[in-house]
Design brief:
The protein is an alpha/beta fold. Helix content is about 30%, strand content about 30%. Helix 1 packs across helix 8 and helix 4 crosses helix 5.
Length: about 325
């Protein structure tokens, strides 16, 4: 089943990274997921088989680039190439989680800027457009020479928190760089913000130093774009409890959850961990404290608007 608009046709496909999200997006669009298989030859090379015609169609490929990111990236590049060679009219890559986004600049001599390299690869493969969610650094949009729509998970998270009717709220930025994100959530929740001042001695290790702001007696909500090892969030939660916060919640768009993040979060003082389904989480990482919100309706509406040539900007309100 395809969506038609005059002579235009819409088809949605997925790689192996998060087929559950792709199915939910198709359900929101009233479409069947396109027929495609991503398998492996005996030597490990990826084989793509597109099981239906895409000639003249607007094709959307849904593929987050979470771990194993190299595998998922290669699948995406191969699918883009396959669609272009099959005479698709437009190929839009829907990347709910953009890998290597933390490598967006040189911090040491001879560092690569891998986020830019990925942009080059996706563009060179033949993508005509990118739709993603909460890039770690907004300037990554400028790494592409094709249109990029960076959707926001913030309204989904804010709506969920508002429905909980939590009292004495304060939004916490886990570092100085996240202040803009935290202020946006605080505006939606009509509350103040505080900042965790931390020092990071080496990658994936965060040491909380101080809390800037008054959190005593407050319900603290930590907001970040992703949770990787969980160290930053857990250390922040402990510091907030020590400063007198009565409860601590954690929110993010991307649950990277590198081992043993799930166990660390479950054993932490956090009351609840609120995430989206931008990344597929295996059952063993779906801890009791976890609440997963769906971004499928958001991506479905973005796909519909792009296909119908309507403004996507309304989704940022």
């Amino acid at each position: 089943m395809i969506m038609d608009q005059g002579s235009k046709k819409l088809k949605v496909f997925t790689g192996n990274a998060n087929p559950e999200l792709a199915l939910e997006i198709c359900k929101c669009l009233g479409l069947e997921l396109g027929q495609a298989e991503m398998t492996r030859f005996k030597d490990g090379e990826i084989r793509a088989r597109i099981g239906e015609t895409v000639r003249g169609a607007d094709v959307f490929i849904i593929q987050p680039l979470n771990n194993p990111s190299a595998e998922h990236l290669m699948e995406l590049l191969i699918m883009i190439d396959a669609m272009q060679r099959a005479s698709a009219k437009e190929v839009c890559t829907v990347i709910p989680y953009y890998a290597y986004a933390r490598q967006d600049r040189k911090t040491q001599p001879r560092d690569p800027i891998t986020a830019k390299l990925l942009a080059n690869l996706i563009t060179a493969a033949g993508a005509d457009r990118v739709v993603t969610l909460d890039l770690h650094a907004g300037q990554i949009q400028g790494f592409f020479d094709i249109p990029v729509d960076n959707l926001k998970g913030m309204p989904i998270i804010a709506e969920y928190l508002l429905q909980k009717n939590l009292e004495d709220l304060i939004v916490i930025s886990p570092d100085v760089g996240g202040v803009v994100r935290s202020r946006e959530l605080a505006d939606r929740l009509n509350c103040q913000i505080a900042i965790v001042d931390k020092r990071r001695p080496k990658p994936n290790v965060a040491e909380v130093m101080n809390i800037i702001g008054e959190v005593e007696g407050k319900t603290a909500v930590i907001i970040d774009d992703m949770i990787d090892t969980g160290g930053t969030i857990v250390n922040a939660a402990k510091a907030l409890i020590e400063k007198g916060a009565k409860e601590v919640y954690a929110c993010c768009s991307h649950a990277v959850f590198s081992d043993p993040a799930a166990e660390i979060l479950q054993a932490s003082p956090l009351k609840e961990v609120i995430i989206t389904d931008s990344i597929h989480l295996p059952v063993e990482k779906q801890i009791p404290k976890l609440t997963q919100l769906s971004v499928a309706p958001l991506f479905a509406e973005a796909i519909r608007r792009i296909f119908e040539e309507k403004p996507v900007s309304k989704l940022f309100d």
